[in-house]
């Protein structure tokens, strides 16, 4: 941590700051310049609050020089991690395809979508039973009935299940049905939920908040990790910007950046990023080419009847092209499609 | 609702769209232009999903022409509402000052802050017992012990209490202690929490999400209203933009815009918007001048020791100026400072 | 400047960095921590390029601790400046109203608008003869014919003129007609134009770029100042954000922030910020209340016939209210309406 | 165009709107609904100003249903275009690599960088002689001396040259030296410059403004096209968002979106998007995988000595990997690396 004093700071201001720092057991090195005095801190600064230091008289700025997340950081864990979801790997050696319907609507629709997913090379099934919707008048998901459908489809297809959980109190129930818990973008800073999924003993798919910085996203992962769960997969799903041509702006740079800062696997959701069917394949290619460890994609047997996000779901005629992407691109990145590993 | 067909749309495409619309009991008026065909819908369109229509063959765009929020909209409720918090009004006739510490730390600190608030003209006390923090290593609030401190300070000062609740399961407990429940920016789309506070029988202070559009913010209020609670106060607290000179960017236009779209009162949080003490007073003046029905402000007796957001809290020497703002500005807007009404 | 070395940096890396720094005549203080080494620089760092240092082996981050703008900074010029435009002051002691039509269309329309402006208390006339328009098919302004109209209206009303110039080569011509040159938001980083207006010998109204950070805005002012012209007035006019309810998002915090960082006057354009007539008065009040040294407002005698931005122009029936704002608000901020000074 | 009347609109309001529309020679179809009246316009609406209509009494909203850009739109020109730069194609059949130094510094540095570019498969040389810099104290480019160096290097390497021009008055001089003119992000709405390059008779590389919407970007291209020049290549180079982990946020979705809206080729600048060397290759792969028709990349023989943007330049040891990207990825997209075509 570096404390920059303002030009108006007196020796007394500097001395007070140094005192506060030292009383927290941290060493302070003072460099006096022509215009500014800089106080460099060395030691364990976790007990020092940057914001409070910034509020002290004479202080102009406080700059952190180490990362605030520890458990998910790559600094102390240089090797990238692989998370296993009921045997399916997500990590540096593979490109995993997770696919399925945005929302579970009926047993038939879910099974049909799962078959589509499988045909395209998916090794994990996604599907929402609890849907966070902007409008209280929109379809909110089938709840536990949806979880039962998912479990039944898993039995028939062999695909482990990823599903979203939206409330801390639902975590035990949802975890009892599924293989991986998803935390959605609107709950990216719902800390109670993060702690609950951290304690649930299942891998977690953590979507980036639509306006989360890289650091906030990793701090959200740290909340999960702190409860003893390091099986966290980060998922970039588009951020909110001024551009309205797409539903969100896919921040494809987030893939290599997050992989350098954290050891956790990083995947991409091209369906929710773009919000348009015609963007799903180009963005899937881009994600994998940028190094993503997987993609999660909406598919629907009859999207015009979908109760949620139909316009972004891939349909039957797209599956061949998706399968081709999954076959051609991973090897160029030195990766295998996850399907190959599990067969 | 207006459906715009693309230049490639055939008569069959148009007929299919019209069929879907009519089967939902809605009338469809078709206007054929040189380049485009437009289908205007008349009737109750709540059962039609814009996104699904957009996914139909030949459809280029679907535009809503009425608001998706009904209960909080000003269209059906032209007169602006006043919400009463244990007798204290927040609404079009007044400018209410809510003040107190960001976090409840000790009984002494809370009481001192409440006295400061009162000296500046506050008629409601703010104070956090449950603190959503970006870092799992930061102070997370005292929980129920904090609520007890707040209740005790209310008894000694007579100030009704506003406090944040962060999890649906905590709502009954928190509601049993306090006068108004606050939903914070990170939970602006935590729909389970919104429904829980909607059912709790206490007025709600709903902060805007840091990346919520005007429509998303009002839809969040609609979630609360739909559970039978129309005592909702909207609070603008800064949005996330590219600018880093301030912690967030206060969207002061949101005050008149929200007041035109909704009948609910709208207040501003200048402390969290700017994140800097020296901005609190200028932004408070700006908020009131823009027509805000109140402001909510951090004050702290010893901000350099604050466990949360110390650098943005007003201190003793700022109170005279704040009191002056509360005295001078409301009359220019045809409003009274709320204090005057309750004495 | 502070250079933070990465955890992987060797002693050789640090030595190389120190060598580069010292060869630029700057002192380097090295603080070795447990995880990081920090190099604090003291001296004249203007010859060091932060970006190049950041590219050196072992360097993790380079942080500037002093401002990159010198001439417009308040650090070396603590007293806030007043700019005089043909006798009309813009600065800390006053609130100046600049008003007029967005675009000069006809002599009658311009004269009528100028009379409206004057009736509301304006002491400077705005009006565009060169209009930068998003579409090549939109009205682009009358050019020199418009300047002649403005000069004629100045003669009849006594109001000095502010007008936009969009190309460096037009600066001498425009400067020969008008009292103050405006640089628009789309040219906020058109450095050739900034240098040309810097050399023209007339005061400059510098609008903030729609995505300019505070620092970029002040650097644009520095370009003008560097050519010997310190008569620069900064104008906040709304920034680009995700919110679409308003044309731009007025960053009202920019007023006090820019006034703390720079000695230059800061005014606000509420017309272009909101893009809606019904927001102009609330945002004008907010701007003045935040401490703005003036506001610049579109007025039009017949806005439904306006060739540019009609929907945001104030009309006859708004003028009384605007005049009242100019009378009531400045005294609360310890300021005078500029009109009073010039009469 | 569709005009939505507000719930308060009277029959007289509707009649006035219809009158204005019809007097512009456009047909108006009125649909009266329960809550709203909608006026659909059919015919040539280019003479109607949406903003002015929006300002009329009773009007709630005006929605365009056709694109405002005509010449660059794909609607009237379904086949995607190929632009040839002195024989080198940029278009749907190829992936073109443009590489070179950010700034021309010396003959040696430029020649070395050109050799590096060529080794990696580049068929066009980039290099800046006029550099728009945020700070007036930063290196601004060598000007005409830099152009001479570029021309000399072209003679020695055979690589046609792309260079930025920053002022309209410089266009004839720059065009006399180089093969393709670049308009930079800060000049994306410098309309005089756009018109000047439109008239210069050379292909144009048009970077997207850092806060330009898709529509504004295409309107900028329309400015060039309107002067008779359809040899325009669009270049996505990152947009400004809240995320600070990268210099800009590469909007990779802009590639397929722009290609659907416009027939012009679309390339990507991964160097300026990310601003970091370690992101250049991942983002290049992502861009090509998303369907980009080329990439433009900074290379520098000695980046630690670069006068501009050294930290983002690729170095010698990166070239093999870049060449491999150019060899492996284009075939997966059904494209050829442009090099193959020109040999």
Number of beta-strand segments of chain A: 15
Using only CA atoms, what is the Rg of chain A? 23 Å
Spans where pLDDT lies below 50 across 5 or more residues of chain A = none
Helix content of chain A: 25-40%
| Number of individual domains of chain A | 2
Beta fraction of the residues of chain A?
A: 15-25%
CATH class of the largest domain in chain A: Alpha Beta
| Helix and strand sequence of chain A | EHEEHEEEEHEHEHEHEHEHEHHEHEH
Largest sheet of chain A: 9 strands, parallel
- Remind me, CATH topology of the largest domain in chain A? TIM Barrel
CATH superfamily of the largest domain in chain A: Aldolase class I
Distance linking N and C termini of chain A: 50 Å
Oligomer: homotetramer
Average residue pLDDT of chain A? 91
GO molecular function (chains A, B, C, D): 3-deoxy-7-phosphoheptulonate synthase activity
Domain DAHP synthetase I/KDSA (chains A, B, C, D): 87-327
Keywords (chains A, B, C, D): Transferase
Protein name (chains A, B, C, D): 3-deoxy-7-phosphoheptulonate synthase
Structure write-up:
Chains A, B, C, D: Residues 1-66 form the DAHP synthase ferredoxin-like domain. Four copies of one chain form a homotetramer. Chain A is α/β, with parallel strands linked by helices. Chain A folds into two domains: 2-63, Phospho-2-dehydro-3-deoxyheptonate aldolase, domain 1 (Alpha-Beta Plaits, 2-Layer Sandwich); 83-342, Aldolase class I (TIM Barrel), CATH 3.20.20. Chain A has helices at residues 11-23, 50-54, 107-119, 144-157, 171-177, 191-198, 214-226, 254-261, 270-274, 277-289, 319-332, 338-342, and strands at 2-5, 27-32, 37-42, 59-63, 83-85, 88-90, 94-100, 124-126, 161-164, 180-183, 204-207, 232-236, 266-268, 294-298, 336-337. In chain A, the strands form three sheets. In chain A, strands 7, 8, 9, 10, 11, 12, 13, 14 and 15 form a nine-stranded parallel sheet that branches. A four-stranded antiparallel sheet of chain A has the order 2-3-1-4. A two-stranded antiparallel ribbon of chain A has the order 5-6. In chain A, a hairpin with a 4-residue loop joins strand 2 and strand 3. The mean pLDDT of chain A is 91. The interface between A and B is large, with 45 and 45 residues.
């Amino acid at each position: 941590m570096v404390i920059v004093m303002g030009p108006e700071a007196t020796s007394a201001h500097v001395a007070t700051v140094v005192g506060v720092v030292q009383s927290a057991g941290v060493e302070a090195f003072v460099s006096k310049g022509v215009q500014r005095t800089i106080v460099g801190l060395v030691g364990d600064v976790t007990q020092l609050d940057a914001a409070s230091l910034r509020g002290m008289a004479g202080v102009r700025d406080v700059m952190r020089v180490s990362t605030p997340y520890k458990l998910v950081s790559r600094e102390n864990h240089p090797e990238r991690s692989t998370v296993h979801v009921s045997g399916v790997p997500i990590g540096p050696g593979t490109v995993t395809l997770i696919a399925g319907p945005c929302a579970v609507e009926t047993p038939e629709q879910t099974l049909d979508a799962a078959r589509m997913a499988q045909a395209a090379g998916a090794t994990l099934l996604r599907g929402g039973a609890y849907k966070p919707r902007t409008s209280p008048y929109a379809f909110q998901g089938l709840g536990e009935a949806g979880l039962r459908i998912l479990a039944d489809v898993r039995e028939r297809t062999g695909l482990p299940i990823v599903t979203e959980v939206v409330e801390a109190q639902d975590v035990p129930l949802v975890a009892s049905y599924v293989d991986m818990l998803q935390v959605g973008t609107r709950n990216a800073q719902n800390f109670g939920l993060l702690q609950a999924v951290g304690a649930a003993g299942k891998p977690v798919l953590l979507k980036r908040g639509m306006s989360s910085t890289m650091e906030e996203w990793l701090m959200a992962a740290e909340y999960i990790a702190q409860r003893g769960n390091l099986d966290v997969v980060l998922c970039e799903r588009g951020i909110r910007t001024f551009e309205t041509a797409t539903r969100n702006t896919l921040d494809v740079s987030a893939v290599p950046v997050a992989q350098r800062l954290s050891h956790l696997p990083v995947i991409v959701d091209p369906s929710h990023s773009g919000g348009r069917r015609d963007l799903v394949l180009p963005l899937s290619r881009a994600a994998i080419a940028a190094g993503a460890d997987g993609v999660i994609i909406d598919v629907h047997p009859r999207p015009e009847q979908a109760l949620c996000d139909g316009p972004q779901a891939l349909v039957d005629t797209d599956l061949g092209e998706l399968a081709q992407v999954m076959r051609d691109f991973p090897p160029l990145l030195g990766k295998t499609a996850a399907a190959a590993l599990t067969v």
